Recover the amino acids of this structure.
């Protein structure tokens, strides 16, 4: 997976010092994968020290990294696409922790960072669909599902995951993806209800795959760490996504009721 | 029996969600363990008659504390364990009720359910925040 920047492919002359590129790239990777803002700043400061830059000034928001090092040009990199990838966060973290001991030139470290950006997701697509089904089943039993409803939740989860994957290709827009996912969840509930299953179990279990959990947890942790700007931005994003999700579910339910499903 | 189901459901839900957010294989067990704790705490409290939002808040505090401890033991950011671990606490049911009441024209009940959803999310945030602040105060995470 590659991380697109609005400026397109970077021209060699336009590159910063390789160490600075390594820092910017690491910051973008962390942010795009769902790391907390304060944690990104922390990591970049420590990596900067290990790379011999001394004290590095970093300003990170959910949409970009700004880096200032005395004697160098100011570095800025935007984050456009985001995919929650905990494996990438763990890999950058491991790299950052290994830097003081490992040595190596700045260009080598830049290469290591770039390698992380290309690692494949740790699980195959079939495993992911199965996991989506299992996540929905787990949640269904937490809200008191009967065995048959658990089975229906598994089907719903697999279906949601497949549709979401398809949507992700069609339009990268997360707002739309979440809304359409909500519509689907509403319809799944209505169809289940016509088989005597409870909507109140099926719909929440299907929605679980789309809730803005990352934004909520990171918002709190960022505000607490003093990154109030990032924290409030994430909280706003969580509200917008939750409204999109609920609105979608409402549309799905309403449409199903209109046709007396 | 009910509590056993809650604990297993929490662990399965969180473990599976961890796969979806690409948590590295070697940490899947930890992520599921956090889900087990949040599912169990939530189950115990809500079955003991506690309000859903309150139970979710306490469960978030427990799960978040465990995540912070795991983060220090495993030298990884807490978000790897916390994000999947909190999934069992999502207020999906109140969101559903808010929407279902709205489309069936029961406006005032919809507002009530929406308010409950907000309180629920706030309680989770409070739990997460308290745990992070407490643990950071006691054991600041050492960096490389």
């Amino acid at each position: 997976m590659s991380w697109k920047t609005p400026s397109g492919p970077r021209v060699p002359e336009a590159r910063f010092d390789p160490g600075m590129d390594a820092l910017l790239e690491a910051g973008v990777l962390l942010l795009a994968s769902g790391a907390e803002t304060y944690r990104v700043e922390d990591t970049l400061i420590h990596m900067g020290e290990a790379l011999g830059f001394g004290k590095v000034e970093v300003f990170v928001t959910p949409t970009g990294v700004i880096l200032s090092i005395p004697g160098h040009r100011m570095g800025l990199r935007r984050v456009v696409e985001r995919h929650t990838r905990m494996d990438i966060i763990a890999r950058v973290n491991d790299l950052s922790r290994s830097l003081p001991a490992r040595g190596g030139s700045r260009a080598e470290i830049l290469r290591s960072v770039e390698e992380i950006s290309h690692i494949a997701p740790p699980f195959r697509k079939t495993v992911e669909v199965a996991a989506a089904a299992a996540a929905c089943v787990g949640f269904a039993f937490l809200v008191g599902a009967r065995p048959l409803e658990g089975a229906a939740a598994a089907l719903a989860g697999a279906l949601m995951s497949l549709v979401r994957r398809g949507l992700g290709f069609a339009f990268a827009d997360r707002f739309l993806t979440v809304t359409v996912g909500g519509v689907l969840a509403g319809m799944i509930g209505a169809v289940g209800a016509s088989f005597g299953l409870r909507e109140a179990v099926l719909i929440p279990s299907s929605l679980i795959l789309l809730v803005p959990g990352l934004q909520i947890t990171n918002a709190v942790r960022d505000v607490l760490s003093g990154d109030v700007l990032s924290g409030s931005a994430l909280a706003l994003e969580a509200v917008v996504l939750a409204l999109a999700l609920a609105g979608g579910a409402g549309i799905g339910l309403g449409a199903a009721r209109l046709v007396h499903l | 029996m009910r509590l056993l189901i809650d604990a297993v459901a929490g662990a399965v839900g969180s473990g599976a969600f961890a796969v979806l957010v690409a948590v590295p294989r070697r940490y899947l067990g930890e992520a599921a363990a956090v889900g087990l704790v949040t599912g169990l705490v939530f189950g115990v409290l809500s079955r003991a008659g506690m309000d859903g939002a309150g139970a979710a808040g306490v469960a978030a505090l427990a799960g978040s504390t465990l995540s912070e401890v795991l983060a220090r033991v495993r030298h990884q950011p807490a978000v790897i364990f916390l994000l999947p671990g909190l999934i069992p606490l999502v207020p999906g049911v109140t969101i559903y009720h808010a929407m279902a009441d709205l489309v069936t024209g029961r406006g005032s009940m919809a507002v009530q359910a929406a308010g409950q959803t907000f309180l629920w999310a706030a309680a989770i945030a409070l739990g997460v925040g308290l745990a992070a602040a407490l643990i950071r105060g006691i054991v600041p995470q050492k960096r490389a």
